[in-house]
Automatic annotation (TrEMBL):
Protein name, UniProt field: GNAT family N-acetyltransferase
Alphabetized InterPro entries for the sequence: Acyl_CoA_acyltransferase, Diverse_Substrate_AcTransf
Keywords: Acyltransferase, Transferase
Signal peptide stretch: none
GO MF annotation list: N-acetyltransferase activity
């Protein structure tokens, strides 16, 4: 029971944060708001889809770190 209450509070906090970001985005005449979510995080995916956010399955995230990043920076 406590987990569900905490979960609802977390959703309310996240929704409040996303609304603030949306206001910031619209006020600056930006056309979109994007974020990342791990593909196994079903509760978050469901939450974002409830906001009518669309998953962009055609996009991939690439990362360069450590020695590879240092080598690339040369």
């Amino acid at each position: 029971m406590e987990f569900r209450i905490a979960e609802r509070k977390d959703c309310a906090l996240i929704l409040s944060f996303i609304k603030e970001l949306a206001q910031f985005t619209v006020q600056r005449d930006c056309e979109r708001l994007e974020w990342c979510c791990l593909d196994w995080n079903t509760p978050s995916i469901n939450f974002y889809e409830s906001l009518k956010a669309k998953p962009l399955s055609e996009w991939m995230i690439f990362r360069v770190t450590g020695d590879t990043l240092n080598e690339l920076a040369k």
